[in-house]
Specification:
This protein has 4 helices and no strands. The chain is an all-alpha fold.
């Protein structure tokens, strides 16, 4: 008589089943797995790199625009008038425009980074509006406005161009 395990099967077999006869093992284990192993789950959908780039730029550009707006609203002596403009609104008005656009851009940038499907089109719209606002603000802070205009152009480019073969996350 062969020794038994506490499970009731032959010793050395923890499952309590008799050892398989033959070279192929038990039926229902190795035979039920397809060649190459079990099927692997599909990799998660990945956002195109341009969307991540645009999200980071929108977040940073939005925070910078809010700071620019706060400086314009807080004290009119921060900005020196370099030239004249047909669209003279006053620094307090420009400050509030930059605060609103900056806050909306920062929230949209965060949404792009989180993968919100509907954030791409508002991102393009906000970047375009910010580009126009920065252009009109050129007489007050030319170098700063040109820097934020360049950020807006990169955002628009990143959100409107897609690499070949990439899936668009907002198309169902």
């Amino acid at each position: 008589m062969s020794p038994t395990s506490p499970h009731g099967g032959p010793a050395g077999n923890p499952h309590g089943r008799p050892a398989a006869d033959g070279p192929h093992g038990e039926i229902g284990t190795a035979w039920s797995v397809p060649r190459g192993g079990p099927p692997r789950p599909a990799p998660p959908a990945r956002r195109p790199d341009g969307v991540v780039f645009a999200g980071v730029l929108m977040l940073c550009g939005g925070v910078l625009a809010v700071l620019q707006g706060i400086a314009a609203v807080a004290d009119d002596d921060v900005y020196a008038r370099v030239g004249s403009s047909v669209y003279d609104l006053g620094l307090t008005g420009w400050g509030w425009i930059h605060i609103v656009f900056g806050a909306l851009a920062a929230v949209t940038g965060a949404a792009l980074l989180k993968g919100v499907r509907g954030a791409r089109h508002p991102g393009v719209l906000l970047a375009a509006l910010s580009l126009v606002a920065q252009f009109l603000f050129l007489p007050h802070a030319p170098l700063w406005s040109l820097t934020l205009m360049a950020i807006d152009v990169f955002v628009i480019h990143s959100l409107t161009t897609w690499p070949a073969g990439a899936t668009r996350p907002d198309v169902t």
